[in-house]
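Cont'd.
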Amino acid sequence: MIGMSAVEWLEPRSLEEALDLRARYGEDATVVAGGTFLGILMNQGFLRPVRLLALRGVLDLDSINQENEGLVLGAMATHRVVERSGMVREGWPALAHAFSVVASPRVRNQATVGGVLADADYASDPPAMLAALDARVVVAGSGGRREIPVADFILDHYTTSLEEDELVVEVRVPGRARRAVYRKFRSRSSEDRPCVSVAAAEVGGGLRVVVGAVAGRPQYFPEACALAESGRTEPDLADEIARRYAEAIEPISDARGSARYRRRVVAVEVRRALEDLYRE
Amino acid sequence: MKVPLVVNGERVAVEARPDEMLLGVLRREFGLLSVRETCGIGVCGACTVLVDGEPVSACLLLTPLAAGRDITTVESLGGDHPVQRAFVEAEAFQCGYCTPGMILTAKRLLEEMPEPSEEEIKTYLGGNLCRCGCYVKIIEAVKLAAAESYPLREVSGT
């Protein structure tokens, strides 16, 4: 057919080989992890890749391990494997929960840890929880490896700090959070993405509240969270932090809710998340 | 490219474009018309197939990602599978369009949770949509299949 050239399929067997191909082709090769987001974009006609770089053959990229006190999730581990992992459920139950409420079992059987971060879709569940747990994205490239906090990895809608020669290889979640919760507020059907999501965790003695699905990137306000150390009592504290989040966030409007609606939901859901957290 | 597939137990290498979803290949190359495209974005579940026993949207699965994996469609269940029998007994369909996806998803649910609660059934099947709105009967069918022995009189409302 005129104008239709063959699409090239690349399936490296090692990380080294994958990084070589990534360095050679950069954005001219579309990286394929589970392929759910990619499939949606392709079926909708938003993306027509000329070259596909699949990571499925790269060994050991899908493992889940504990290292020292922390959790290491391989980039190719699927959502379902994370949510059902005994290690994750035991040590990081809120994280297992955040992965378990994504879409349907079908999507979770395909979608991966690395994919959900690299896609940087504002309405995905796991990034907010990972950011609240102070997780780091480990990326590998021609220049070696670097670790990026999840909160700095996702920059804006579908935009990350991943360089053209880099691949996400794993996500490292620090030692068991003392307490953590994830609340997903849906405005439509049960398998939908969140209208507002709130992840709250006590990590290393400090409170981290991260609101997802309301803006281009997960929303975290350290100054508001620092109120937890101000000696305020709990019901009042939850109200005040929730009020500050609702004021600070500039929500988007989409089919799941207007900006005005979202701002009100943020105030309620942040308060509820903190109430849940203090009840843990 | 040639993609080696295992479809309903049969090993076949098919010619497919690397950017082609498994859905089209199953329909075109294998005549498996129980795998249906509706939304094309992984929401509706009409294209559900089992890949290594787990439900997946065939509309979102690039064909080369299915290489070497065990693909099961409802055609292979033969019509007498307990979940299929339960769907018939409960009359859990009107047009039948969503039924293959429902059956495959329910099959996997019952392997994971042999005695699911109504809430667990609803959550697990939440990603399979029925435009006829037969959800009450579908949930009933899954409960029947779970019970395995299911005399007709125990089906309420019939």
